[in-house]
């Protein structure tokens, strides 16, 4: 995974399929747990498949970022198959989706204003 501090308070992470997906979420979770002022953009354009463990990790990350810290978590670049999983599970109503990283960054910045 590559993740970068796009600004002082915004991190953009490019996720890949498992096993990298699971391995990459651990340091992200530690990062947002340690810093309660971070907004997070997850680029899922490299993800073709999510399993129940991946979804659970995303939900836990959302709980920290959105629930505990009251920050933004945007998911973007979601492919058709992965989008279908979010629809079937009802998680399309839980997560905040945008088309691409640029839109996600714009949305995060608008929320910060």
Topology of this structure?
Elements: E1 2-7, E2 10-16, H1 20-34, E3 39-46, H2 52-68, E4 73-76, H3 80-89, E5 96-98, H4 101-112
Parallel strand pairs: 2-3, 3-4, 4-5
Antiparallel strand pairs: 1-2
Helix pairs in contact: 1-2
How would you characterize the overall build of this protein?
With 113 residues, the chain is α/β, with parallel strands linked by helices. The protein has one domain: STAS domain (Transcription Regulator spoIIAA, 2-Layer Sandwich). It is 48% helix and 25% strand. The chain has four helices and five strands; from the N terminus they run E-E-H-E-H-E-H-E-H. The chain has a five-stranded mixed beta sheet with strand order 1-2-3-4-5, with helices on both faces. The longest helix is centred in the middle third of the chain and has 17 residues, at 52-68. The mean pLDDT is 92.
Short descriptors:
single chain; 113 residues; alpha/beta; Transcription Regulator spoIIAA; 5-stranded mixed β-sheet; 5 strands; 48% helix
CATH class: Alpha Beta
Helix content: 40-55%
- The rough form would be described as globular
Q: How many β-strand runs?
A: 5
């Amino acid at each position: 995974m590559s993740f970068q501090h796009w600004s002082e308070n915004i991190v953009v992470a490019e996720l890949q399929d498992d096993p990298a997906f699971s391995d990459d979420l651990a340091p992200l979770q530690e990062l947002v747990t340690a810093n309660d002022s971070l907004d997070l953009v997850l680029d899922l354009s490299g993800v073709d498949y999510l399993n129940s463990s991946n979804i659970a990790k995303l939900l836990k990350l959302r709980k920290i970022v959105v629930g505990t810290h009251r920050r933004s978590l945007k998911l973007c670049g979601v492919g058709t198959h992965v989008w279908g999983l979010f629809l079937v599970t009802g998680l399309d109503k839980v997560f905040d989706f945008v088309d691409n990283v640029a839109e996600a960054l714009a949305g995060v910045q608008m929320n910060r204003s």
